[in-house]
């Protein structure tokens, strides 16, 4: 996937930093485009199928052009389908959150994934969380509570009214974070030695199958009912696929290890884009909470180990 908790071990060059910000902007724009598509007839499963299939095709072409060898051990063959299933669930849940919440708030709730990653590492592999994580956890949760306006003070609805409005969306976002956290832990321990391009193409392909199954269960695809919807679907597919292509072709040449925490500014990018494109806005206290969450997650990713 696009994010990871690990961070670079040396200072980023200006070009690398700008590239990471570009990827964050594209991923934020991807979710704003998805909301445009959802507002004009597209459903979540259809969007995930199109996005995942196109991204898988791009990565497979990249693998072929670069001559990457496909090598899977018995462990990889056991674990990669499970990881792909989790990524498929994460994709469906996150887009479901984006369809129900202001885009930036959906991404902020999803940005709790480092907490879930630490929890799953403890449960599955018995790893104790680092002190930095223990310090960051309450900060992230307090910032998220501010951003979501959990007591309904900013909205004037009160706690009950606010949760009746955001509860389903927050639930989907947290489910996405939970499944993504487990996918990260399993990837690190069971499939970390698989080439990143191959691993991502495999998981994206399985995610597409998960979404296709959902499409079948709901009676077929739901395509846009207006030109704006088609534009949103095309844009989210292009932005997602392009961001992944940049990630696997440009970043390694720039000496960026993994996916830097700089990309966790994605919710901030989405906040600005959603305001410009969708007219979505949130109260100042919610903006402050968003900055707290983003700052805490970036601090976790940028810490020296």
UniProtKB/TrEMBL annotation:
The keyword Signal does not apply. Keywords: Membrane, Transmembrane, Transmembrane helix. Residues 19-147, 169-299 form the EamA domain. The chain crosses the membrane at residues 44-67, 79-98, 104-125, 132-154, 166-186, 198-217, 229-249, 261-278, 284-302. PANTHER family: ACYL-MALONYL CONDENSING ENZYME-RELATED (PTHR22911), MOBA-LIKE NTP TRANSFERASE DOMAIN-CONTAINING PROTEIN (PTHR22911:SF79). This is DMT family transporter. It comes from Ramlibacter aquaticus.
């Amino acid at each position: 996937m696009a994010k990871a908790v690990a961070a670079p071990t040396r200072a980023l060059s200006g070009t690398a930093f700008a590239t990471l910000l570009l990827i964050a902007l594209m991923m934020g724009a991807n979710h704003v485009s998805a909301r445009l598509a959802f507002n004009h007839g597209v459903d979540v499963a259809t969007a995930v199928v199109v996005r995942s299939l196109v991204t898988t095709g791009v990565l497979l072409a990249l693998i072929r052009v670069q001559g990457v060898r496909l090598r899977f051990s018995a462990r990889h063959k056991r674990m990669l389908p499970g990881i792909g299933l989790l990524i498929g669930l994460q994709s469906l849940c996150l887009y479901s959150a984006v369809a129900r919440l202001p885009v930036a708030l959906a991404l902020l709730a999803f940005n709790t994934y480092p907490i879930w990653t630490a929890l799953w590492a403890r449960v599955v592999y018995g790893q104790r969380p680092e002190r930095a994580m223990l310090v960051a956890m309450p900060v992230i949760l307090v910032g998220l509570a501010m951003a979501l306006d959990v007591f309904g003070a900013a909205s004037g609805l009160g706690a009950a009214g606010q949760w009746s409005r955001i509860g389903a969306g927050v639930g989907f976002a947290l489910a996405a974070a939970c499944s993504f956290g487990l996918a990260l832990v399993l990837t690190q321990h069971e499939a970390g030695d698989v080439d990143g391009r191959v691993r991502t193409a495999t998981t994206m392909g399985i995610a597409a199958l998960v979404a296709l199954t959902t499409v079948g269960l709901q009676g077929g695809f739901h395509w846009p009912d207006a030109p704006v919807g088609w534009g949103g679907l095309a844009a989210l597919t292009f932005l997602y696929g392009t961001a992944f292509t940049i990630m696997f072709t440009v970043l390694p040449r720039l000496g960026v290890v993994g996916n830097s925490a700089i990309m966790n500014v994605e919710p901030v990018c989405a906040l600005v884009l959603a305001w410009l494109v969708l007219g979505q806005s949130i109260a100042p206290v919610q903006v402050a909470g968003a900055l707290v969450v983003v700052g805490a997650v970036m601090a976790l990713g940028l810490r020296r180990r």
